[in-house]
Write a structure and sequence with these properties.
0% strand; transmembrane helix
């Protein structure tokens, strides 16, 4: 019961904040910036200065890090196979996630094309071997009948041996 009333009170509070947003902004309240949202052009999140990123720190590092990762040996092979780079030595130490995803998709398409070609080759080989077997008058039905006859003969011989003992 208490959780219901607590949820209703929280919902009412958020409704009140949404409906009074214009008044709150006039009083100096700024809405929270969520992860990934960008500040408005020309305004800084804190209210002073510009919206440009901070300058490099004292160590000479940039204030922000571009999204990317160090490619593994497999990622490097994928980047070369997909045609993004000519050699593995040409790949930079940090590669963007989008480039790795694009290379992965390209390799996935190439592998699917190769599988289609191999399937067609296997079908053609099966057809050829089936026609050669038909020329030799071999069929699965005849082979199965011969195998069952052999099993029946072996079981009869085993039955005779057990009767004699």
């Amino acid at each position: 019961m208490w959780s219901y009333w607590g949820a209703a009170a929280a919902g009412g509070l958020s409704l009140a904040l949404r409906s009074n947003r214009g008044r709150l902004v006039a009083w100096g309240w700024q809405p929270r910036r969520w992860v990934g949202s960008k500040p408005e052009e020309g305004k800084s999140p804190e209210g002073g200065g510009s919206a440009t990123p901070a300058k490099a720190g004292a160590e000479g590092r940039p204030a922000f890090k571009l999204p990317g990762c160090k490619p593994s040996a497999f990622h490097k092979k994928m980047l070369v196979w997909s045609g993004r780079f000519k050699r593995e030595e040409d790949i930079p130490p940090v590669v963007s996630f989008a480039m790795i995803d694009a290379a992965r998709n390209n390799v996935r398409v190439k592998v699917s094309y190769a599988m289609v070609v191999l399937t067609i080759v296997a079908c053609i080989a099966t057809i050829i071997s089936g026609k050669k077997a038909a020329d030799r008058h071999e069929s699965l039905t005849a082979m199965n009948m011969a195998k069952k006859a052999r099993w029946k003969k072996e079981s009869e011989q085993e039955a005779e041996v057990t009767k004699r003992k």
